[in-house]
């Protein structure tokens, strides 16, 4: 029975990842806790495996398209590594209710970010073509509410900012003045990954676009690389414990990967904005439900 729920849950989350370009992995913890009976600590550890594997596979796909900026990704991930370890250690020492309520709040923040990114934009807005509607990014998907053509987003970004191409090609930080922002965002992402088992894509992608003026296609590819690295680092302290139930994790992850492949075809047939807003509404409903359950109990 549990194995079947893991497969179904993985397929659904994978479909969301493939169709929305991210965010689906944030549902892994509620599914693992409320449907599969794992503790929050077990669920966050399992989620790291699911997020890390899915993000790594998607990174390979983007790398073949040349949309991963390796230097930027390593910089963000390096900044977040200490925070990832801190978050993982704090997770072990935090009451289960606090972990779940914190997770619900992150779900609500993720939904808010999605709705904000899909708000109506003026046609004359210089960044409308480049940034477009975007999901919170996967924790680990590769498609969804981004421009359907990497070249199109690249051209849009080039038009809106003369320096964007040179920065994107170098794959390095634009100037020393932004290093503080990069470090700050990296620390926040690392902590969220370690403490809650989320990829943090809903923070990473907007940060890469806004702070580094990166084209959307490269922001998504680089975000997946950062998520894979952060998930791997956050998982290390948990490998020696008893939080990983591989009998559930393996089919869950395999189903999620399979679902993401199907989800990419769904994204080609349905409007990205509608998909994103519908998923944001789902996150809001689940987030409020989790808070209500934990407070009542």
**What would you report as the Rg, rounded to the nearest angstrom?**
18 Å
| Alpha plus pi helix count | 13
Cα(first) to Cα(last) distance is 26 Å
Q: In total, how many beta strands?
A: 0
Overall pLDDT confidence: 74
Shape: globular
Strand content: under 5%
Structural category? mainly alpha
Uncertain stretches of 5 or more adjacent residues: 125-173
Structurally, the number of domains stands at 1
Q: Profile the largest sheet.
A: none
Oligomer: single chain
Helix content, binned percent: over 70%
Q: Helices and strands, in N-to-C order?
A: HHHHHHHHHHHHH
In short:
The chain has 297 residues and is mainly α. It has helices at residues 2-20, 28-35, 40-64, 70-92, 96-117, 128-131, 150-160, 164-170, 179-196, 201-212, 216-235, 246-267, 272-296. The longest helix is centred in the N-terminal third of the chain and has 25 residues, at 40-64.
Question: Can you describe what's shown?
Answer:
This protein is mainly alpha-helical. The chain has one domain. The longest helix is centred in the N-terminal third of the chain and has 25 residues.
Topology:
Elements lengths: L1 H19 L7 H8 L4 H25 L5 H23 L3 H22 L10 H4 L18 H11 L3 H7 L8 H18 L4 H12 L3 H20 L10 H22 L4 H25 L1
Task: Quickly list its features.
297 residues; mainly alpha; globular
């Amino acid at each position: 029975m549990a194995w079947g729920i893991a497969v179904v849950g993985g397929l659904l989350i994978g479909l969301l990842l493939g169709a929305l370009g991210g965010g689906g992995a944030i549902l892994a913890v509620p599914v693992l806790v409320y449907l599969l009976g794992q503790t929050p600590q077990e669920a966050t550890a399992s989620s790291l495996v699911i997020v890390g594997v899915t993000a790594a596979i998607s990174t390979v796909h983007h790398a073949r398209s040349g949309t991963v900026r390796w230097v930027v990704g390593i910089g963000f991930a390096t900044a977040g590594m200490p925070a990832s370890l801190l978050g993982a250690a704090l997770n072990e020492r935090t009451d289960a209710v606090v972990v779940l309520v914190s997770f619900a709040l992150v779900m609500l923040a993720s939904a808010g970010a999605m709705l904000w990114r899909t708000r109506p934009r003026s046609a004359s807005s210089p960044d409308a073509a480049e940034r477009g509607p975007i999901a919170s990014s996967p924790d680990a998907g590769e498609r969804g509410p981004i421009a359907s053509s990497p070249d199109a987003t690249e051209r849009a970004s080039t038009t809106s900012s003369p320096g964007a191409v040179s920065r994107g090609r170098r794959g390095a930080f634009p100037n020393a003045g932004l290093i503080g922002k990069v470090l700050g965002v990296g620390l926040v992402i690392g902590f969220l990954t370690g403490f809650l088992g989320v990829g943090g894509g809903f923070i990473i992608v907007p940060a890469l676009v806004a702070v580094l003026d990166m084209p959307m296609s490269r922001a998504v590819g680089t975000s997946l690389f950062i998520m894979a690295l952060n998930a791997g680092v956050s998982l290390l302290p948990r490998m020696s414990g008893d939080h990983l139930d591989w009998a559930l994790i393996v089919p869950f992850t395999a189903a999620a990967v399979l679902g993401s492949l199907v989800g990419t075809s769904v994204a080609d047939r349905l409007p990205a904005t509608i998909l994103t807003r519908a998923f944001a509404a789902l996150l809001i409903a689940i987030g409020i439900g989790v808070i209500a359950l934990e407070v009542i109990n």
